[in-house]
Design a protein that fits this description.
six-stranded parallel β-sheet, binds 6-hydroxymethylpterin-diphosphate, alpha/beta
Length: 259
């Protein structure tokens, strides 16, 4: 799943693809690089991000989805039902939902749905995140939502532990460590670690300064490779060509768990 943020403020590619033609060009480039799916988003969910209006988000994503859908499977990264509806009408066939609440939209439109775990909202999620047992809480949350969606008639339901969404570095690492248990629960798993700040902190340089976004490819690739080996059926990445190479290698090792 290649990431395409049609936003001015996403944490790693904000502003680069706000222009329609540049977004389309990048989307097609990711297809050429081997992406099976392009995830189009019109609202940043980085820590502290402020929401945008429904009309503005629709204006950003709908023309890009409309132009990309004939070439590749498209998902829409949104938490707004009306934006999801408009995106599906434009050709998206998967609703990537960081709020894990839009399954009724997926059910009524006959499209797939991703249930991701987040603590609170992007504006507040990194304010002192605490859990009794992060792995158990995230797992029971996403599985409960996934079962509700399946009961409502959604035929394709994914679960996602929501790396970086209201989690400390250690909590993110615990979730990655315990990914095999989530993958064994019966729903396909998608994982997004790409360029996230915990990778910057883990690669901190002298004096503890986190590695900047452009230096997080090694962490992005090693964690997405780990996720694939641990049973994730899809990884959400910015650097598609590198991730496809890693995925090919993982496939050729023969170590991928049987699904
Ligand atoms: N991460 C981001 C956004 N959407 N969706 C899923 N399913 N899983 C994720 O881990 C995930 C996601 C955040 O990354 P990005 O889109 O690059 O940044 P921003 O939210 O600032 O636009």
């Amino acid at each position: 799943m290649g990431v395409l943020n049609v936003t001015p403020d996403s944490f790693s590619d904000g502003g680069r693809y706000l222009d329609h033609d540049r977004a389309l060009e990048r989307g097609l480039e990711m297809v050429a690089e081997g992406a099976d799916l392009v995830d189009v988003g019109g609202e940043s969910s980085r820590p502290g991000a402020q929401p945008v209006s429904e009309a503005e988000e629709r204006r950003r994503v709908v023309p890009v989805i409309d132009a990309l859908a004939p070439h590749v499977r498209v998902s829409v990264d949104t938490v707004k039902p009306a934006v999801a509806e408009a995106a599906v009408a434009a050709g998206a066939t998967l609703v990537n939902d960081i709020s894990a609440s839009l399954w009724p939209v997926a059910a009524s439109n006959g499209v797939g749905w991703v249930a991701m775990h987040m603590r609170g909202t992007p504006a507040t999620m990194q304010d002192d995140p605490r859990y009794g047992d992060v792995v158990a809480e995230v797992r029971s949350f996403v599985l409960a939502r996934a079962h509700r969606a399946a009961e409502a008639g959604v035929g394709e339901v994914w679960v996602d532990p929501g790396i970086g969404f209201g989690k400390t570095v250690d909590q993110n690492l615990s979730l990655l460590h315990h990914l095999p248990e989530l993958a064994a629960a019966g729903f396909p798993v998608v994982v997004g670690t790409s360029r996230k700040s915990f990778l910057g902190r883990l690669a901190a340089r002298d004096g503890g300064r986190p590695a900047p976004v452009e230096d997080r490819l090694p962490g992005s690739l090693s964690t997405s490779t780990w996720a694939m080996l641990a049973g994730a059926a899809m990884v959400r990445v910015h650097d598609v060509a590198a991730a496809v190479q890693a995925a090919t290698l993982v496939g050729e090792t023969g170590l991928v768990p049987a699904s």
